[in-house]
TrEMBL record:
GO CC terms, sorted: mitochondrial inner membrane; nucleus
Domain of life assignment: Eukaryota
Amino acids binding Mg(2+): 182
Record flagged with keyword Metal-binding: yes
UniProt keyword terms in alphabetical order: Endonuclease, Hydrolase, Metal-binding, Nuclease
Domain ENPP1-3/EXOG-like endonuclease/phosphodiesterase: 74-316
Active site residues of this protein: 146
Protein name (Swiss-Prot/TrEMBL): Endonuclease G, mitochondrial
Residue span(s) of domain DNA/RNA non-specific endonuclease/pyrophosphatase/phosphodiesterase: 73-316
Taxonomic lineage: Eukaryota, Fungi, Dikarya, Basidiomycota, Agaricomycotina
Transmembrane regions: none
Record-stated family: Belongs to the DNA/RNA non-specific endonuclease family.
One function term, GO molecular function aspect: metal ion binding
BP GO annotations: apoptotic DNA fragmentation
Organism: Tremella mesenterica
Amino acid sequence: MPTLGPSLLFAAGLTLGIGAGVLYPRRSRDELPPIPPPPPTSSKKEIIKSIALPSGSVRLHGGFPGPTPDIIQRTAYTAAYDRRLRHPAWTAEHLTAASLAKTPPLNLNGDRSKSVFMEDEGIPEMFRAKLSDCASFSSIYPSATHVLTIGVPAADAKISQQAMDETFFLTNIAPQVGDGFNRHYWAYVEDFCRRLTTNFEDVYVFTVPLYLPSRHPDGKWRVVYEVIGDPPSVSVPTHFAKVVLASRPDFSYPQSPSKGDKMVTATSSVKELAMGAFVLPNQEIPDGADLRSFIAPVESVERASGLQLFNTNLKSKSRQLCAVTQCQVIVRRFDDARKELGPSVQGRKSSVKERS
């Protein structure tokens, strides 16, 4: 079974303290390393930044031009927003059986019908994905060729109404093909990630939009993607990746229950780690497709996205996810059921087409 040496992984606000042979998947909010705040969008005092060049230096009035990482912390997830593409560069979430419970403590669980799409005013207006982009997109594609997808789905944020509402910020949104993907196979993959909490105590999920090249008839490789909005500003990824790190008790070692929650093991217990990545094309995928056919090395996702999701030590200590649990989707055609029930059920849906 995997054991871990001294290390520390800090990714997207998901903190895994790794001691001598021990993975600590839970730490209190006060113990979390601080995430640097995004740079201020305005300042009364003019900023002058000097940048060294081989022939001397140049002074930039207004500060460093970018790119600027907009790190966004929400109740149920953390994300980084890509100002150029107008959608998340990645989203990260921590799933547990308790966080996904349909009836959280004090009955404060979120109600999807009360949530609406929102612009994120924390992003400068000139770089912000806007509701008007979505409205024009919906009119351009009346048959819903593409729909808006939520990076961290609302179904993963039932813990409170605020948590669910926050999944509807446009900084958590990217366009996907509707029929056969967003409403179907991608939804099955999201469900698969949630079901992992029945076999693992802690499940950490990165969702990463990708732009991958394809070979054209002339033999050259090109990255070709659509841009939506009026004017066109929101990019449509060619692929989407789910990268998963899961942990559960390693019963090769003594285990003890957590003092705060007897249903899980103590943080001092040794954990078994499993890691896996799935890369899916942003296109219609048959319901019968084998999820394992989309397995990809985590390093391939990192290389394509320019991200380092997990450190080398953690990767070396993790088993392949599909080698220790069944990687299979469950086909559930909820959208077809809604169509059969008629317009009265669909009336509560937002005017902007989506599936969460």
